[in-house]
Amino acid sequence: MNQLEGPVVPEKRKLMVVGAALAAVIALPACAPAGYKAADYGNAAEPASNDVAATPGAEATAGAEPDAEATAEADPADEANTPEISDELTTTSLTGSKVARMGKVVEDQDGFVLYRFDDDKDDPAKSNCNGQCAELWPPALTNDGEPKIKGVKAELVGTVTRADGTKQLTLKGWPLYKYIGDKKPGQWKGQNVGGKWFVINPDGTKNLTCLPAISKPVAPPSDEEAEGGDAGGEADDAGSDYSY
């Protein structure tokens, strides 16, 4: 009797371990910032794909042929035509920090979490978020490409020339952005928006520590908001059908 029962215990243990692992995978998409209900967070629409990869930014390759847009700033004539960005729109510092539940992040001078976009390119760097996309995801603009750095390796920080001629900070080749859905420092409601936007680690990789369900971006700012007015803020949480 005991001989028959003996092998059953390890099998039960295996089932328990597998069950716990499955529960962890199922629970992962429900992850949301502290203070938010998972059901209400980010206008969640569907579970995040389990095959989301933490792809690092590619290292710069010696002898690689960069494209014209990425190297436009190297041309003195183009440099003279680069639009000057006002101080309030520039990103003057990059700080490697930690926030609750997400862990490692990169923040700007105001403490807002920065993101990377899967539709961009990192080798050579290129931003594919322009127009209304850039209204939802304000690029980390710079005039001199020399932000104050803390907790981030200086050799990973660079710039890319955007379609409008302005300069944007990059981290290991990935253009950096804020998210208008983040209303205060330390928030990261842009995580996994559209399945393409992710909090960036100080080394340039995606931070997938907490992966909420894929969500829609917030609605674009109204004309009144764009001009500095207040439309009541209701549109911010309404979500939109835009793909970026």
Defining traits:
single chain, alpha+beta, 5 helices, globular, three-stranded mixed sheet
Summarize the structure in short.
The protein has one domain.
Query: Tally the helices: what do you get?
Result: 5
Q: How much helicity do the residues have?
A: 10-25%
Sheet bearing the most strands, described?
4 strands, antiparallel
Residue fraction in strands: 15-25%
Protein model, in words:
There is one protein chain. This protein is α+β, with helices and mostly antiparallel strands and 244 residues long. The chain has one domain. It is 16% helix and 18% strand. The protein is built from 5 helices and 13 strands. The strands form 5 sheets. Strands 7, 9, 10 and 11 form a 4-stranded antiparallel sheet that branches. It has a 3-stranded mixed sheet with strand order 3-2-8, with no helix packed on it. A hairpin with a 2-residue loop joins β5 (121-122) and β6 (125-126). The radius of gyration is 21 Å and the shape is globular. Residues 20-29, 38-77 and 229-239 have low confidence and may be disordered.
